[in-house]
Amino acid sequence: MIRVLLVDDQPLIRSGFRALLDLEDDIEVVAEAADGAEGLALAREHLPDIALVDIQMPVLDGIETTRRIVADPSLACVHVVILTNYGLDEYVFHALRAGAAGFLVKDVQPEDFLHSVRVAARGDTLLAPSITRRLIDRYVTQPFATAVGKSLKELTNREREAVALVAQGLSNDEIADRMVISPLTAKTHVNRAMTKLHARDRAQLVVLAYESGLVAPGGS
């Protein structure tokens, strides 16, 4: 069962998403919050698999809520998915850097919304490669942190190759096909790279791959 926490200051938005989720046999809404501070408290109480968090809220916005969830070791099981009205913007990028697993525009089609919840629950990123490139190209203007650069040097050649393929939007099975290795080995390369780069999930790994220069913005 996928356990979901809804965090949005608009009751109509929360009720709409809840109505969709409640129809699914494998998804359960465990709590709702009207701001980030309440959402953080409920996340600690219920330990959901997914926290659907609005980007702009009173008291505590979605970026800071994401940052605090990611920083709390007791909430390591929680994948944050940012909800936005505006699509690609600087707020979304900062939320991804803070540790969000991806983002959804609120006018998403119901079937795409449900699919995205299930994808996030598996620990996969909710970013198409074209969207990621546009985000990075638009908002990454400063060199990546020294700590990231040093960590990148610790990757083996195969780990670097795997990270580059993750940044292109490939799944572990697709990475295995491209690198001519087993899916288990592909997963191992990705997981080791995440550990060395201190990436919480694949979304952060993608951002780091672009920021570090391992993958060039606007490239294929």
TrEMBL record:
Membrane-spanning parts: none
Pfam family, one: GerE
CDD domains: LuxR_C_like, REC_NarL-like
Entry-linked Gene3D superfamilies: 3.40.50.2300
UniProt domain Response regulatory: residue ranges: 3-121
Segments forming domain HTH luxR-type: 148-213
Modified residues (4-aspartylphosphate): 54
Record-given protein name: Response regulator
